[in-house]
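Posting this for the archive.
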Amino acid sequence: MDFNQIQELIRMVSKHKISEFSLKEGDFKLVIRNQGTSAEVAPVVVAAPQPVMTMPVAAPTPVAAPAAAPAPKAETPAAAASDDSKLIAIKSPMVGTFYRSSGPDKPPFIKIGDTVDAGSKVCIIEAMKLFNEIESEVKGKVVKILVEDASPVEYEQPLFLVEPA
């Protein structure tokens, strides 16, 4: 945009008594503000901010994951820990909010010790205001529930551990 075009925009903003006008083209941004009732207009040119790479943000994620991993091992007896290799995880097929039941006053779909069949409803995941019923893909006994009710879950995050039947 050249100087003459900017002057023409200033005149138009002043003539039509527009209090503020903003224009953005690529990295160029122009803001024109009309001060009060007078015809005085103050053009302001602002350069677009450059993206900044921040490496420390990625560091807390790996630190949080190992901190959460030892907790289940500490709670589980040593004999059960060796059986973990036989367990199958029911994973979240999407990002959303995990719910164990269909409503706050309803019982959970499954509890620890329950037997599930392939195709049994195990939970609901809310994603973008839609409630998606999640079904088990394995048949077996529920050994562990890995996610708290009404908490956010990620894609492929394990939700339940099932001992196959």
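The domain at 86-164 is CATH 2.40.50.100 (OB fold (Dihydrolipoamide Acetyltransferase, E2P)). The chain is about 20% helix and 35% strand.
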